[in-house]
Design a protein that fits this description.
This protein is of the alpha+beta class. Helix content is 34%, strand content 23%.
Length: 577
């Protein structure tokens, strides 16, 4: 290899990789032995990995690609696999995919010593060394390969500092060509495969949109963006969108790009990963706005479009003045809100009754309506439903001007039907387009959620769940005035409760404490206002549980379903990631 430097026999990798019993060789996946002293690379990477580790399996192809590219360029670089596999068969199968060397799997003592020497706490882990001296260039090799690829070679601190300076300079001198072009590509593509010169974007506003096929939040966002895009085109605005795909294969890219009316960087182009790092991508959806001069105007306008929907085009190009106009329009829209403006879209002017009959939204006008965002796959939703049904029935006994509308996040009709069968109220059909719009209007990020709409169609509260759990049916109609009245009543009751008590469920003394929302460790339901608390142990009991000596109430998990992609369930809520 070019600029080869032999490892010293008494130091560097010769010492690091040899074994105490005299082994002085490494293996290729062909089982050939390679003398450690014959390794000519000046830079050597120790790759701690295992076939059972999903992140390792995802990273290995990327490292193989970088390795092959560096070797083809004549760079003085070698990789040594340090296996964490549990048996020889797994090692052989995994090593067969690697073009580099490995410490023999049979030398368990050497593998253990390398893990100990480099304090390996997790895998994949890539330690990059000066072969001659054994000096550690970096222990963050995985991150550097992800971020810079082969450009990071030889992975020294000096080289990484140089790359960071280059990125800073690139941002200072950013142009539309430096963003989207490469030395070998000066074009973008349409979903029909046509090539469009990057120069066609000069003088235009450009939205740089990161996309992944099949990821719900991105699919929803790009459908809204497409409507805004077409509207801006129709009114003559100089606006274009460029998709930056993070898909790993051509088929996935083509599937998602087929429905997009804008341009894209070709799939697999390294510029896609470079842009993800350049704009510090941390979540999706993300839409970067580039100005006519090629400079970045806004690092992410996805939230603006998400909030205002297709009408966001009226705020283009999203300057402070334009955003103020959007905010004023949103405020006026909220003030003119009616139940029908929320629940009627085109021909969709109904909700479903228990028998599947269509109930006109007009029959709900003048009532207090709770919009119940929930799903059968969500454990907190299943746990909350019996409580909601009980309080619903109590409210209906006294108030005919009350209703609940179930808005489902289920994926299958059978799950929807089964869950809805336990509800005595109304619902939107599964997959109804109104669900997406309502979720945006009320910024629903977790379920179960209850939004209260008053008789005049205005929003009473975006969180009716908390007062309903705390006060039950007495919380109706969920107005601030009603809740303040209940708080005063509870505060008066609290004056008669003991300040401290002991309970069988906890070893320490519990102290009556004024608090906000908490989870009761007795019945597992939510509470607020007052708790019998052990601050040291973060233990809470509802006053009713503490004073009535209630024990644990166990919630069944029959017919449990897995949460869909994009959600994580914690405590009493399932939230969007």
């Amino acid at each position: 290899m070019a600029d080869a430097t032999h490892a010293a026999a008494d130091g560097g990798i010769a010492t690091i990789l040899a074994s105490a019993d005299g082994r002085d060789f490494l293996l290729r996946n062909s089982a050939d032995k390679v003398k450690i002293s014959s390794i000519e690379a000046s830079t050597v990477a120790l790759y701690f990995s295992a076939s059972w580790c999903p992140p390792c399996r995802r990273f290995t192809p990327k490292l193989v690609e970088a390795y092959n590219e560096l070797v083809s360029q004549g760079k003085s670089f070698e990789v040594v696999f340090v296996s964490g596999d549990s048996d020889q068969e797994a090692f052989n199968a995994y090593f067969a995919k690697m073009p580099w060397l490995a410490v023999p799997f049979s030398d368990s003592e050497a593998l253990a010593k390398l893990n100990e020497r480099y304090k390996v706490m997790g895998i994949p882990h890539l330690v990059i060394l000066d072969a001659k001296s054994g000096e550690i260039y970096t222990e963050d090799g995985v991150e550097l390969v992800h971020e810079y690829g082969t450009e990071a070679y030889p992975f020294t601190t000096e080289r990484i500092n140089e790359l960071e300076e280059q990125e800073k300079a690139a941002k200072d001198n950013q142009t539309i060509h430096s963003l989207f072009g490469t030395p070998t590509r000066d074009y973008l593509i349409t979903n029909k495969g046509d090539k469009v010169p990057i120069s066609d974007l000069e003088g235009k506003y450009v939205g740089l949109c990161f996309v992944v096929n099949g990821y719900g939040p991105v699919v929803q966002f790009t459908s809204v963006l497409a409507k805004m895009y077409e509207k801006l085109k129709a009114v003559g605005e100089k606006f274009e969108v460029v998709a930056v795909s993070l898909d790993g294969d051509e088929e996935s890219f083509n599937e998602s790009f087929a429905d997009m009316p804008w341009l894209a960087i070709p799939q697999g182009d390294k510029m896609c990963e470079k842009l993800a790092r350049y704009f510090e991508l941390s979540g999706l959806p993300m839409l970067v706005l580039i100005g006519p001069d090629g400079k970045t105007l806004n690092d992410d306008i996805a939230d603006i479009i998400d909030e205002h929907g297709p009408d966001a085009w009226e705020g283009f190009p999203f300057s402070a003045e334009k955003l103020e106009i959007l905010a004023e329009k949103a405020k006026a829209k909220a003030e003119s809100q009616t139940l029908e403006s929320l629940l009627v879209t085109g021909d969709l002017d109904f909700v479903l009754g228990k028998d599947g009959a269509k109930v006109p939204v007009s029959e709900l006008v003048g009532k207090t309506v709770l919009l119940y965002f929930s799903a059968k796959w969500c454990p907190p939703c299943r746990a909350f439903l019996p409580k909601l049904v009980n309080e619903y029935n109590k409210i209906k006994e006294k108030h005919n001007d009350f209703e609940i509308v179930f808005i489902s996040s289920d994926r299958e009709q059978s799950s929807y039907d089964e869950f809805f069968s336990d509800m005595p109220w109304l619902a939107l059909p599964l997959g109804d387009e109104r669900k997406q719009q309502l979720s945006k209007i009320f910024k629903i990020t977790g379920i179960p959620s209850l939004v209260a709409i008053g008789p005049d169609g205005k929003t009473v509260t975006k969180d009716a769940k908390t007062p309903l759990v705390a006060h039950g049916a007495d919380a109706f109609p969920f107005t601030d005035e009603k809740l303040q009245e209940l708080e005063k009543k509870i505060d008066e009751m609290a004056k008669g409760w003991p300040e401290k008590l002991k309970h069988d469920l906890h070893e320490h003394e519990l102290v009556l404490t004024r608090c906000t929302t908490y989870g009761c460790d007795g019945c597992d339901e939510m509470g607020d206002s007052w708790s019998y608390r052990c601050k040291e142990c973060d233990f809470d009991l509802h006053p009713k549980c503490a004073l009535e000596e209630k024990g644990d109430v166990e919630m069944g998990e029959e017919n449990a379903e897995a949460a869909p992609a994009g959600y994580v369930c914690e405590g009493d809520v399932c939230r969007k990631v």
